Amino acid sequence: MELAGAVAIVTGGGSGIGRATALLLAERKAWVVVAGRSSGALEEAVVLIESRGGHGIALPTDVRDSASVQRLVQAVLARFGRIDIVVNSAGVAVAKSLKDMTEEEWDSVVETNLKGVFLCSKAVLPTMIAAGRGVIINVSSVLGRAGIANYGAYCASKFGVIGLTEAMAAECHAAGIRTYAVCPGPTFTALHRRLVGELSAQRSMPPERVAERIVGLVTHGSPEGSSVTVVVDEQAPAMSCGQTGRSWRQRVKRWLLAAIRFARGPSKRR
Hints:
7 strands; single chain; about 270 residues; Rossmann fold
């Protein structure tokens, strides 16, 4: 897809992977709408976009709420008349065991990370289907490929994002819509810093690396076609959407646990 003049919505666009993706799309001359719950962060993202010569708009949105998502989509259509790209990047996490996690915490994670992808995708599909084209990229996680302790809600939501992406591809590929799930490894974002600490987070990759992969999928797609699950991490074992056996999952879990031990630093390793 040609990015110059394309219209993109990036949820979670005020920080982390979402903001890095919004900046890169704008640098490639797309019109970028950043959406999220923090108005201040969204406005800061737009200032950055415009300081680099791009075009950005901030539209505060709660992806957990269908009415809020519909207002977002209708505002974009009223302004531009179309939506070419959606990057579902809004996400939250709670690091707790299942026995200690509250129902409210579970709901917050699953509704943001999974229901938000459903609502935003559902809202843009009619206009994309009518146009016969469009790209939807859903940000999952390596924890959407192999679950680990104390991240039950996050893992469940990110596993769900991958399954939802595959279902969307099966339904929408014939209409000319491409869908991808991107699974970043540990990434230097505010969310990751809050979960593992500032020092440990510095060992993770920059969000710009994930943004480059996302924008690459938008512009060039994947040789494997739509519904590809793409892992973005230099230390990850080789993965493809066809590897789902027990030995592969065990290998991914070993890598994840090793990465977590590394992130905690020497004093916390055993």
